[in-house]
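Quick one:
INPUT:
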């Protein structure tokens, strides 16, 4: 059983044939135990229906044994509830666990209640905060590191939300590390990545929670490689060809010399990040391992992608807009966007390309959020639009969004104030006047203000 708990999904597949072979050679008293272990392996290898059949048969075998002890039968019952949950029957699994806990005492009972609460949270589509709190606090009190042991993906999502809610953060972080959980989609910033790279605004590198400070010039090229790999997440949306990297890091070198320099820099970067697996090299392409290395660029793209997916879904079918999710992702975007990429450093062409594309992604994501909220008759919160405009003061698209927001509320003076601020920044930063679209909107705001004043001065009788 220790082997099963330590094995990851790719290792578990190799265990099943061995268990099948063993099962055909065992005496009757061991057949049930092999069936239970087989059910565990089947769950780990993505065969929940087969796992449920094995777990149910093993439980029936355990109950029929004349010499079966309650403690032994309990293991079969727990495996059965895990198989039920894997097949979506979380309410039934939770009910069985609560019944079992009523016949037990101490840490074992608390652990079953914690698991039942975790199943109930999953059954609520991860919205029942009371069930989440009960699961996390119960597991923490009983030091239960085997919570959802057959469902690491679900456990990772539970831990992610628990960290966001600041529920038992010390225990949750220890649980993530002990179980070696992979980060889920929309992973929170509190997830314990060994490596964290911030490049929006000032470029910083954190290793195991401590900020890295280069001690000699030899690390400059290694850090530049790290920046280029982060840039590739935006520019290429995937791994970078070695030639592409060489062109940006050693543009004046011969190709063979540049490739040797790249190999050496990759080796040094892995050493710097304290993990060979942090930098993946495969089929002539190089990328950062997103399971080990967190970057603000990757997270910003993920939040923008979720908003675009919601927008597209809303266009295809008439559906309710998850307002809380929209606002959460918009807040994440603005929290992540601390400024232009690698602010204050050399303006190499590839750096400028990243900055331009990032600004476009941010504008499009905010436009998506406004469209989604308008779909249900709501405006994008003005504080978010103001923050976005402060981050990119020459963005006419953001300025027009904020002007339209004020205009819909009859706040014409505020709309014109936004126009004047944008016009001043365009002239100061870029030396250009506002575009025709922005000028047209300004005229529309003025006409609306005039018409509104006329209606106020001459109300209909």
């Amino acid at each position: 059983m220790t082997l099963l708990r330590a094995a990851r999904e790719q290792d578990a597949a190799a265990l099943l044939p061995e268990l099948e072979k063993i099962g055909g050679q065992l005496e009757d008293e061991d057949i049930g135990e092999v069936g239970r272990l087989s059910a565990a392996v089947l769950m780990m290898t993505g065969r929940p229906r087969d796992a449920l059949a094995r777990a149910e048969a093993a439980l029936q075998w355990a109950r029929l044994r004349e010499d079966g002890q309650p403690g032994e039968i309990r293991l079969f019952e727990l495996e059965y509830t895990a198989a039920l949950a894997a097949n979506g029957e979380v309410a039934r699994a939770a009910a069985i666990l609560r019944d079992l806990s009523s016949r037990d005492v101490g840490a074992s009972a608390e652990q079953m209640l914690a698991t039942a609460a975790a199943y109930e949270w999953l059954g609520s589509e991860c919205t029942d905060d009371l069930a989440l709190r009960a699961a996390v606090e119960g597991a923490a009190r009983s030091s239960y590191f085997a919570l959802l042991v057959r469902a690491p993906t679900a456990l990772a999502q539970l831990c992610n939300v628990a960290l966001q809610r600041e529920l038992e953060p010390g225990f949750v972080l220890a649980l993530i590390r002990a179980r070696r959980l992979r980060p889920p989609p929309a992973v929170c910033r509190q997830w314990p990545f060994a490596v964290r790279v911030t490049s929006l605004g000032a470029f910083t590198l954190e290793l195991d929670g401590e900020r890295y400070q280069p001690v000699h010039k030899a690390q400059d090229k290694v850090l530049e490689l790290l920046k280029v790999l982060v840039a590739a997440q935006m520019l290429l949306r995937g791994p970078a060809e070695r030639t592409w990297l060489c062109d940006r890091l050693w543009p004046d070198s011969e190709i063979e010399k540049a490739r040797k320099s790249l190999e050496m820099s990759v080796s040094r970067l892995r050493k710097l990040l304290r993990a060979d697996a942090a930098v993946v090299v495969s089929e002539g392409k190089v990328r950062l391992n997103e399971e080990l290395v967190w970057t603000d660029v990757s997270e910003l793209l993920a939040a923008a992608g979720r908003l675009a997916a919601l927008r597209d879904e809303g266009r295809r079918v008439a559906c309710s807009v998850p307002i809380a999710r929209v606002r959460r992702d918009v807040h994440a975007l603005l929290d992540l966007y601390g400024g232009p990429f690698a602010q204050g450093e050399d303006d190499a062409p590839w750096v400028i390309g990243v900055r331009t594309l990032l600004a476009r992604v941010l504008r499009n994501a905010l436009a998506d959020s406004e469209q989604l909220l308008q779909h249900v008759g709501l405006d994008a919160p003005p504080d978010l639009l103001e923050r976005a405009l402060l981050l990119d003061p020459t963005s006419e698209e953001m300025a027009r969004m904020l002007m339209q927001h004020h205009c819909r509320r009859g706040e014409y003076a505020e709309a014109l104030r936004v126009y004047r601020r944008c016009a001043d920044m365009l002239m100061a930063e870029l030396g250009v006047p506002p575009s025709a679209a922005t000028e047209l909107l300004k005229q529309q705001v003025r006409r609306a203000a005039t018409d509104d004043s006329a209606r106020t001065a001459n109300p209909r009788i």
